[in-house]
């Protein structure tokens, strides 16, 4: 699949995409291939048109059926974690959802098998990705916790929804030195886990980060941006009051009545002697 064939499809706010890329880099995403794909993949095509204006914000968005399209940072981070090894050829994705993560994986791996349990989402994502020209994806409707033994072994497995434990069934379907990445619930908190399988199916489990901490970090960036806007607004308000006070002082000295409207630029002078 040639990414250049779908770049620029529909809504193409390049400034919004550049802003998203800047934020992903600030959050620690380093893989240039992943960053390039996130920047160029038309995320707005995977969500409802009513939400298209928010497509390149670093947030998850609803896609119906009580499901969401993943936050771009999570897509980038999980993809980066399994793309660290050059020998990765076949990846299994648990939870196709909108198909957005699937499209990113398809550009990086020779073969993608993706499983979705919700029939409507399975059909929608299959239709969308087929229309966009992706040809190396096997779409499976079924229970992702069982994996898909027919296409095993897999060099990597991505689970897009939080699980309570590492699923042994999926680990058994990994190739030697394969890896699995998933959000894992632990004592009420969600953590991103990477597990690398060694000989005889022993695995090394590493907590990549606390999802709540990273989410908070993302929110802190957003909060800083809002604070800058608030400061600008405060300066405007201060300027308005200064202008109003200045006019009021002159009006009192010259016995002029006046009335301010909503904007400090517009006020009604009731005398032409001002």
Summarize the SSE layout with pairings.
Elements: H1 14-26, H2 32-40, E1 61-64, E2 67-69, H3 72-82, E3 90-94, H4 100-108, E4 111-116, H5 119-131, E5 137-141, E6 154-159, H6 168-171, E7 174-186, E8 189-197, E9 203-210, H7 211-254, E10 258-260, E11 267-269
Parallel strand pairs: 3-4, 3-6, 4-5, 6-7
Antiparallel strand pairs: 1-2, 7-8, 8-9, 10-11
Helix pairs in contact: 1-2
Instruction: Please report the first level of CATH classification, the CATH class of the largest domain.
Output: Alpha Beta
Number of helices: 7
Total DSSP E strands: 11
- What integer is the average pLDDT? 77
Kindly, what is the distance between the CA atoms of the first and last residues, rounded to a whole number of angstroms?
70 Å
SSE pattern: HHEEHEHEHEEHEEEHEE
Helix share bin:
25-40%
Query: What number of structural domains do the residues give?
Result: 2
Characterize the main sheet.
7 strands, mixed
Name the strands of the widest sheet in spatial order: 5-4-3-6-7-8-9
Beta-strand content: 15-25%
Class computed from helices, strands and strand pairing: alpha/beta
The whole-angstrom Rg is 26 Å
Name the CATH homologous superfamily of the largest domain.
Vaccinia Virus protein VP39
Q: Judging from the principal axes of the Cα atoms, what is the shape?
A: globular
CATH topology of the largest domain: Rossmann fold
Q: List unreliable stretches of 5+ residues.
A: 209-219, 256-274
CATH architecture descriptor of the largest domain: 3-Layer(aba) Sandwich
